[in-house]
């Protein structure tokens, strides 16, 4: 696999990670069976995609970028779907995280 495909797999894994976080929230402490099963399926998928990406990408950079995608996506989803706070300081640190992701990608 090329590094270009590795980056695609990494971004896809980050997006699936956000979906996993949302499904886990909806699973309500694993009391809702359908959301629990969805959560487990998404967990397996994002781990598989991340594992594929790590075959060609440096682990430190890839893991930091993956974590950043998950964090930024989860914050955004929490704001949009669950009415979590969107105050200025929180959004500032989301921007800082995005800049860090871009910086790590450019430096690779």
From TrEMBL:
GO CC term (a single one): plasma membrane
Bilayer disposition of the protein: Multi-pass membrane protein
Transmembrane domains' residue ranges: 6-23, 35-51, 63-82, 89-107
Keywords assigned by UniProt, alphabetized: Cell membrane, Membrane, Transmembrane, Transmembrane helix, Transport
Entry GO MF terms: transmembrane transporter activity
Domain of life: Bacteria
The keyword Transport is annotated on this UniProt entry: yes
Record bears the keyword Transmembrane: yes
Compartment list: Cell membrane
Any single Pfam family the record assigns to this protein: Multi_Drug_Res
Family of the protein in this entry: Belongs to the drug/metabolite transporter (DMT) superfamily. Small multidrug resistance (SMR) (TC 2.A.7.1) family. Gdx/SugE subfamily.
UniProt protein name: Guanidinium exporter
């Amino acid at each position: 696999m090329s590094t270009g495909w590795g980056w695609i797999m990494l971004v896809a894994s980050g997006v699936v990670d956000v979906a996993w976080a949302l499904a886990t929230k909806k699973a309500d402490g694993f009391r809702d069976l359908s959301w629990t099963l969805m959560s487990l399926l998404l967990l397996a998928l994002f781990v598989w995609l991340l594992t594929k990406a790590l075959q060609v990408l440096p682990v430190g950079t890839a893991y930091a970028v993956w974590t950043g995608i998950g964090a930024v996506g989860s914050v955004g989803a929490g704001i949009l779907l669950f009415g979590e706070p969107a105050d200025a300081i929180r959004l500032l640190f989301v921007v800082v995280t995005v800049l860090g992701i871009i910086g790590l990608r450019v430096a690779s």
